[in-house]
Design a protein that fits this description.
Elements (H helix, E strand, L loop, with lengths): L3 H6 L6 H13 L2 H8 L21 H12 L6 H8 L3 H13 L3
Bound molecules: heme C.
Length: 104
């Protein structure tokens, strides 16, 4: 079902069932809660921030994988490790649902 690249990319997710769960959780996520949580993200992540990537419109499951990788320190950025370290799974999913709903 998945190619090698996808298998690597979805390595954070242990099974197809877990992935379906994630899609399901994203579909049910509270956008208002995501928007509320996004308040502290957009101080850096503005539409045209110098040197800071634009995060609007990142596909939701990818967004979750990125945030969990910062949280587990698999991705290397001190600020983002700290930001993600304060978030639980529900908060990350709400943020993913919110940012993926925005146009980039
Ligand atoms: C103090 C500034 C700052 C804040 C606040 C911040 N970020 Fe970041 N974020 C960054 C920087 C800088 C990078 C780029 C890191 C790198 O290139 O290694 C980044 C990268 C990211 C990425 C990866 C984007 C990509 O294209 O690779 C995501 C997703 C992200 N941040 C989400 C968030 C979320 C969600 C929040 C709020 C909970 C947040 N950030 C708060 C500075 C910030």
């Amino acid at each position: 079902m998945f190619g090698a690249m996808s298998a690597v990319m979805f390595g954070a997710i242990s099974s197809a069932a877990a992935q379906t769960d994630l899609a399901d959780q994203i579909a049910k996520a509270d956008l208002g809660y995501g928007e509320y949580l996004a308040g502290e993200c957009v101080t850096c992540h503005r539409k045209s921030g110098a040197g800071i990537p634009q995060i609007n419109g990142i596909e939701a499951e990818t967004f979750v994988i990125i945030m969990k990788a910062y949280r587990s320190k698999d991705l290397d950025n001190k600020v983002m490790q700290m930001m993600a370290g304060r978030l639980d799974d529900e908060q990350i999913i709400s943020l993913a649902a919110y940012f993926s709903s925005l146009s980039n």
